[in-house]
Write a structure and sequence with these properties.
Blueprint (H helix, E strand, L loop, with lengths): L1 E7 L8 E7 L6 E10 L2 H7 L16 E8 L11 E4 L2 E3 L5 H4 L11 E2 L18 E5 L4 E2 L6 H4 L5 H11 L7 E5 L3 H12 L3 E6 L5 H7 L3 E4 L3 H6 L4 E6 L7 H5 L2 E9 L12 H4 L4 E4 L5 H14 L5 E4 L4 H9 L6 E5 L4
Parallel strand pairs: 10-11, 10-13, 11-12, 13-14, 14-15, 16-17
Antiparallel strand pairs: 1-2, 3-4, 3-8, 3-17, 4-5, 5-9, 6-7
Length: 346
C-alpha cells in the first residue's frame, strides 16, 4: 500500500479538501502512475453532489488523468517505466461479456468499475485522479502519443472520447452536416473532432458569446438557440446532432432540425427526466439516442487521432486549492474550456 495526497469530498455537497488515501500495492498486471494533470469534468460535480444518485464518500473525483509510469508489475507487457499514459472513466470490467469482448467495456453487462465512486473487484472503493498517484490494471491504461502535451491530453480521456465515439458511430465525415449543442468542455472537443473528421460543423449554443472561439476551433456555422429564428432556419437540415449539455432540452425542437433518418445523440446527462412527444421521431424516421464514453480500444484510437491532427483540449490550468472555485465556475459556464489541475500542487 502507498499513502498519497489527494483532494476529496468528505460528504455530499461538501467542499473538497486535502487528505490522504491508500493506493494498493502494484500487482502482477498493474501500472503505478505518477499523475501530472487531472481534468475537472462536469460529471465530477454531479457525483460529488449526488446529482445522479447516492454516492460513495469520501470521494476523490477525477477521470481525466495524464501522467508518467513509475512502476510496473512483473506481468505487464504494454507499458514500461517512463511512458506517458492516461486513465479515463474506467479501471476495470468483467472482460467476459459480449460487449467487453467487442471492445465496448463502457457497456459491460457484467458491471464495469468506474475510476472513482465505484467499488473494485477487491471490494475496495475506487479513488480518482485528484491525487498524486494511481494504480491501474494495464488493460485500462492508455498510451498518450508524443504529439500531445500531457496537460491538454488529460481532458481527452473523457471529454474527447465522449464526443469522438458518437461522431464515429454515426459516421460524421465529409458530406455530413453535424451540429454540436453546447460549447463547453465536451462541446469544444466535439467541434474540433467533427471538423477534423471532415464534417460541416454547426454549433448550437444559448448565446453567441463564444462564437469567435467556435469558428476558430473549426465550426462552419454558429447559432444562438435563444433566438427562435434559429429553429426556423435550420429545420430539416442536419444529419447528426450531438448534445453535450446536462440541462434538460426541448427535444422536439432539436429533433425538428434533423433530416429524414437523422439522429440526435445525447452525451450530456440531465439530472431530471425529460419528456418527448413521439411524433417528433415518428415523422422523419428519426433517432433519439445516447452514447457513453468509449471502450479502451476506441479511446486509444481517439488519442492517436488527436495527435495526428495536432490538437488537445483548450484548458485553464489551476492549482489544487482552486478546485472548489473551479466547480462553481463550471456551473456558471465560466471556463474556456476545461479546468485541469496541476497535481504537483496537491
Amino acid at each position: 500500500m502507498t499513502t498519497v495526497a489527494a483532494y476529496a469530498a468528505p460528504a455530499s455537497k461538501a467542499p473538497l479538501e486535502r487528505t490522504t488515501i491508500e493506493r494498493r500495492a502494484v500487482r502482477e498486471f498493474d501500472v503505478l502512475i505518477d499523475i501530472k494533470f487531472a481534468g475537472i469534468c462536469h460529471s465530477d460535480i454531479h457525483q460529488a453532489r449526488e446529482g445522479w444518485g447516492e454516492a460513495i464518500f469520501p470521494m476523490v473525483p477525477g477521470h481525466e488523468i495524464a501522467g508518467i509510469v513509475s512502476e510496473v508489475g512483473p506481468g505487464v507487457t504494454k507499458f514500461r517505466v517512463g511512458d506517458r499514459v492516461g486513465v479515463g472513466c474506467l479501471v476495470d470490467s468483467c472482460r467476459e461479456c459480449d460487449n467487453c469482448r467487442a471492445g465496448l467495456e463502457q457497456y459491460c453487462t457484467g458491471g464495469n468499475v468506474g475510476t472513482y465512486n465505484a467499488v473494485g473487484k477487491d471490494g475496495e472503493p475506487t479513488y480518482g485522479g485528484y491525487a498524486e498517484k494511481i494504480v491501474v490494471d494495464e488493460n485500462f491504461v492508455l498510451g498518450i502519443p508524443e504529439g500531445i502535451s500531457l496537460d491538454v491530453a488529460a481532458p481527452l480521456l473523457c471529454a474527447g472520447i465522449t464526443t469522438y465515439s458518437p461522431l464515429k458511430h454515426w459516421n460524421a465525415g465529409p458530406g455530413k452536416k453535424v451540429a454540436i449543442v453546447g460549447m463547453g468542455g465536451l462541446g469544444h472537443m466535439g467541434v474540433k473532432i467533427a471538423h477534423a473528421l471532415g464534417a460541416e460543423v454547426t454549433v448550437l449554443s444559448q448565446s453567441l458569446r463564444k462564437q469567435e472561439d467556435g469558428l476558430k476551433l473549426g465550426a462552419d456555422h454558429y447559432y444562438a438557440t435563444s433566438d427562435p429564428k434559429t429553429f426556423e432556419e435550420l429545420r430539416g437540415t442536419l444529419d447528426l446532432i450531438v448534445s453535450t449539455v446536462s440541462a434538460p432540452l426541448d427535444l422536439g425542437a432539436y429533433l425538428s432540425l434533423l433530416k429524414t433518418d437523422g439522429a440526435l445523440v445525447n452525451v450530456g446527462a440531465p439530472e431530471e427526466p425529460v419528456s418527448l412527444n413521439l411524433f417528433s421521431v415518428i415523422g422523419g424516421r428519426k433517432t433519439l439516442a445516447g452514447s457513453g464514453i468509449g471502450g479502451i480500444r476506441e479511446t486509444q484510437e481517439m488519442l492517436d487521432f488527436c495527435a495526428e491532427h495536432g490538437f488537445g483540449a483548450e484548458i485553464e490550468l489551476i492549482s489544487a486549492d482552486q478546485i472548489n472555485e473551479a466547480y462553481e465556475r463550471v456551473l456558471a459556464s465560466d471556463v474556456r474550456y476545461r479546468f485541469v489541475i496541476d497535481t504537483a500542487t496537491i
